[in-house]
Amino acid sequence: MTATNMDDLVSLCKRRGFIFPSNDIYGGMKGLYDFGPMGVELKINLKNSWWKSIVYERDDVEGLDSTILTSPLVLQHSGHEDTFTDPLVDCKNCKARWREDQIVNNECPSCKSKDLTDPRPFNLMFKTAIGPVDDGSSFAYLRPETAQQIFVNFKNITDSTSRTPPFGIAQIGKAFRNEITPRNFIFRVREFEQMELEFFVKPGSDEDWHKYWLDKRLQWWSDQGVNSQKIKLLEVEKEELSHYSKATFDIMYEFPHGLEELEGVANRTDFDLGSHTKNQDDFKISSKVKENKDSTTKLVIQDLETKEWFIPFVIEPSAGVERGVLAILNEAYTVEEENNRTVLKLKSHLSPIKAAVIPLKRNNQDLVNLANKVKSELQSLGLGRVMIENSGNIGKNYRRHDEIGTPMCITVDFESLENQSVTVRDRDTMKQERISLSEINSYYSSYFKN
């Protein structure tokens, strides 16, 4: 069975080194988490899978890694300074703070008091001073999304790569939001990573590309092990759309705490490039675009056939890394009562440890030396991290690696010294087979490539 409540996942994550509360020895900080030895491997593997799918397996996407500190002018013209807010409500009785949409029947969710303040806007962006004197005259924002730096780099990338629509720019990176009430473990936090693609298309072709990318993203989540039966599509109502959006589909997933957004796929129209473009009157652009008196650049493309200049529309699939990790852990978490074990049945390309090599007796130098040799050879194949597990208790080693999702355990025993073979145990079936050391590299490679 899969996890039925968040406590199961939180316990496993701390016990096995996936995720820890940040600054834990000083009481922690709400809405901040650190990824431990297993968690960082899982996170890297998920990001690598996304990058491979979005960039390496295509010929129409370029990559970018931009700064976190963002000019206020960028976020002014993007609309974030005006719109990136949540309505904040205070309970006068227990002093708790809530987003307005968390208030039901005009009651505080904590103490049930109806003595609440009127909603007031709360800006979600973090500010930081620039320079040696913090006098408020020079500051930057920690970016609330990775998208805007893609848009302001649009001309740099088209000039250096000669790209024309349809093409995309992909980025994975940190974003920051000063959430009023971070909650549900790593689902809603103040510091997180995004995997975002901005895909630029000709106006008029945007609706077809929107559907294309929605289908692509649904298939990708299925390839990561997310059960399609736990996925629902939500078309965002027009009155609830973001200020830049013509249409948005939210890919909703049944998390342990309920049905919530896993990824959004939005049609951002020409809002972003138009908002950052000077001399906007020269182009037919969205009426939502704000006049820009500060930009020095035209973020436009020339149609090679008609020779007319136009501002591309943008299709944006945007996913949170932490939310992806949470969904994948929830899907993989399995309790097998008949086998008295908990196992993470992760897809092998996501598993933090690809193989554990276990010498049967920790104090036997011949076994340890052979195990280290096997480990080094497998590690050199470059398929992921291979670990030596030299604690001497084979049963506990198996259970530990079941819980962290290691697909195979390779035991080096005394028979290995005699006939140069090892025992390979499969995580999911627990079946064991004897493999010659001369074949272990090809066996290992074939397992992951298949």
Q: Can you walk through the features of this model?
A:
It is a single chain. With about 450 residues, the chain is α+β, with helices and mostly antiparallel strands. The chain folds into 2 domains: about 5-85 and about 145-330, Bira Bifunctional Protein, Domain 2 (BirA Bifunctional Protein, domain 2, 2-Layer Sandwich); about 355-450, Anticodon-binding domain (Rossmann fold), CATH 3.40.50. Helix content is about 30%, strand content about 25%. The chain has 13 helices and 24 strands. The strands form 7 sheets. It has a 7-stranded mixed beta sheet with strand order 3-10-11-17-14-13-12. A 5-stranded mixed beta sheet has the order 21-20-22-23-24, with helices on both faces. A 3-stranded antiparallel beta sheet has the order 4-9-8. Strand 13 (about 245-255) and strand 14 (about 260-270) form a beta hairpin. Helix 2 packs across helix 9 (about 320-330). It is globular, with a radius of gyration of 26 Å. The chain starts with 5 loop residues before the first helix and ends with a helix.
